[in-house]
């Protein structure tokens, strides 16, 4: 699939590399055109966009790309610095994903690729068992694309339910960030879903 990745930071670069290895055709959409990257503008033949910019830049980026009916996979997290350091700027009664869809009511948005670090997403196959990646959304086709891409790059892809479950996924992301930055685990770990042996 041809995937437009909005943003060229750590997450965008990691997902581009992983998707390329999995046989997809990711295109990094950036503010400043680079040698092989595209400017931040619509990509008419994309199967999906991955939103991989800071949350505060999401609305501006989506307005520039104008995805129309193309599914958007939201890899953002609403983070802000507070008295205790980095934390979520939204609580459990709202999510960044829901705020984005309120700003763009026709957006076919699924929350995914937000619950682990870029280095895990770059090469999920390094981990055993496979790391888990959740997807939450109200558009069944958009969520199916999210789950397929997550599986293609090495994750155990799990449907987390409707878009309002993004409130839980963003908190799950904050747990990974806290363990990584404050609790000494570093960036080279991932969560996995384990099942009881019958």
From TrEMBL:
Domain of life of the source: Bacteria
Domain Pyrroline-5-carboxylate reductase catalytic N-terminal intervals: 2-65
Keywords: Oxidoreductase
GO molecular function: cupric reductase (NADH) activity; ferric-chelate reductase (NADPH) activity
Ligase found in the keyword field: no
GO annotation terms (biological process): copper ion import
Cellular compartments per GO CC: plasma membrane
Record-given protein name: Dinucleotide-binding enzyme
Lineage start: Bacteria, Pseudomonadati, Pseudomonadota, Alphaproteobacteria, Acetobacterales
